[in-house]
Specification:
By secondary structure, the chain is of the alpha+beta class. It has three helices and three strands, in the order E-E-E-H-H-H. Helices cover 39% and strands 26% of the residues.
Length: 100
């Protein structure tokens, strides 16, 4: 059952394409394996699949910094860049898994 919907919605297991969004940027991540909610699109990732989404998000964040005018960047990107790799992955993974 979906913990995000919290209304008894049944999740289905399989591989589905997902879209990762950061600010105004979006990118697809194809064939993400795990339990998927048909209502809210939440995913409980199989081992390693969450990392694929983190890598996509990291690439979007880097693109956002490179595209920013006058070397400025979105504050969230700057804050994450100042963190260690481990802290950044932990923060993003917690966001994706929402404490699961």
């Amino acid at each position: 059952m979906c913990r995000q919907c919290n209304d008894g919605t049944e999740m289905s297991y399989g591989k589905k394409d997902m879209t990762i969004t950061y600010g105004v940027m979006s990118r697809p991540v194809f064939a993400v394996a795990g339990w998927h909610c048909p209502v809210c699109k939440e995913c409980e990732f199989d081992l390693g699949e969450g990392m694929r989404c983190v890598e996509t998000l990291e690439a979007m964040m880097q693109d956002g910094v490179q595209a920013a005018p006058n070397g400025t960047a979105v504050p969230d990107v700057v804050a994450l860049q100042g963190s260690s790799w481990h802290d950044m992955v932990k923060s993003i993974t917690q966001w994706f898994t929402r404490g699961r």
